[in-house]
Protein 1
Amino acid sequence: MNEVTTLAERLSDLRAVKKMGIRELGRAVGVTGMHISNLEKGKSAPSAELVLKLAEALDADADELLSLADQVSPEVAAVIQKNHQTIPNFLRSAKDLTPEQWTKLQKQVEKMNKDNQ
């Protein structure tokens, strides 16, 4: 499989892997087959809520699909809103971290959360 760069491509690929028809996927997430077709053609953009339903129906990584849709989960949006002054500054400070440094940082945050419990 090639590197997928758009939500439309990823949805189409995931649906093909699951051997699901457009109408079947639409029914699974509560929209019409036409809406799924429009998403796969890049003609419409889904809400974050619909992306989460699509991820569940397609056994896909919700964060990956949300990212491809230029969306964030409601949970992440709530964290950003709660910390609206510090999150942007933190991300600007961390923008040049390597993947390994991000992993290390994530582990440190998880440890801090565990220590707070």
Protein 2
Amino acid sequence: MTATIEDARIDPEEIRDSAQRLLADMVDRRAGWEARPDGAAALDQAMRELGWYQLIAAEAEGGLGQRFDVLAPIYEELGRSLAPVWLSGTMATIDALYATVSAAAEQLVAAVLENGWRMAVVTLAPGQSLAAASAPMVGGAPDATHFLVIGDGEAPPLLVAADAPGVSVTEVTSWDLGRSYGAVEFSDVRNVLFRLEGDDVLPVVRAHSELALACDSIGGASQCLSETVDYMLGRQQFGRPIASFQALKHRAADHKVAIELARSLVSHASRQFAVRGDGWAVLSAQARILACEAYAAMAEDCVQLFGGVGFTWEYDAHLFLKRALVNQIIGGSPDDLRDRIVGDVCQRAQTARL
């Protein structure tokens, strides 16, 4: 079962322009965690009014029938602005529902859109189940109405209401103070709303989530580099802008190359995932690794290149660094992703020999 793809495509750059205008008006990253709950709720409502949540849903369910490549610029701009919202949980769930083998999934997509459900993806450790499980840091968990629970592939992903008996959520503080995170625990949970059966469901959830983080990281890294270069052009040392010093110019150039290399891979992976092209599952994991590493390296150097003020809370360098570090580990570390890539490649090679 797949979402309807109409001939009339929305231009991704038009979506980007719309996202930039909205986020410029509504996101104040300096306000920090104190304004996050109210700011996140207002931004989420504005995103719904603009139809962002409807983008990849089929028209039959009240959506716009678009593909991931139209959604990617939104993820990038959310990262660029350090927005306080989690969009990817709901969108990955919608994508996963269309990958199931059950026609009832379409009704759930309609319910998600009509009722304004907010989803968070919970990844369980191997061997865990809804009978007894915990996830120490889940993005968007405190604000979620439902959880999409995924594991190691032995059991199908499950859709569970956040207020179901046996489900508990505790808000936790992370390095990234701009977004919400929570610890989720399951104890003898029996009320499962839906079982997402299908071979592609788990890979789709993972790929969508990974590409969302990759796009977020590209946006954040690009903005971090831009602000660092602007600072270097204005900061005087020995009567000259520090941007004129060759060693610093080379560092900025190296980061620019790394970011553009990552952007190229993320763009390719997004296009392949949008049409379920060759190798989309592996490409999404590779894209996340490269993008998150480029972001973390840029953000770390941003603190250094800003000099003494880069370590202060009055400048935004630490906000980018904290977001970059969390992007690297949330939902799976780079080592976890590399292990999965190797496993997928080996499995495909073995299948090809049979």
Protein 3
Amino acid sequence: MLKNARKSKRMSQKYLAKRLRITQSYLSKLENKKKYNKNVTIYLVERIAEELDLDSTDVFFYFCRRS
């Protein structure tokens, strides 16, 4: 979901990570759900939703579901 939304907005991982104030590596892990992280902050969920024009509830549940 996150990767598709980012690509549809024609953003690179590097650009989005900088906007979110996280590392590109961490963004990659979040996008690919390689590392389940239940410690994603509400602030980060809201920032991701804002940057990608997504509903924050959808982003929240994206992180709640295990891959």
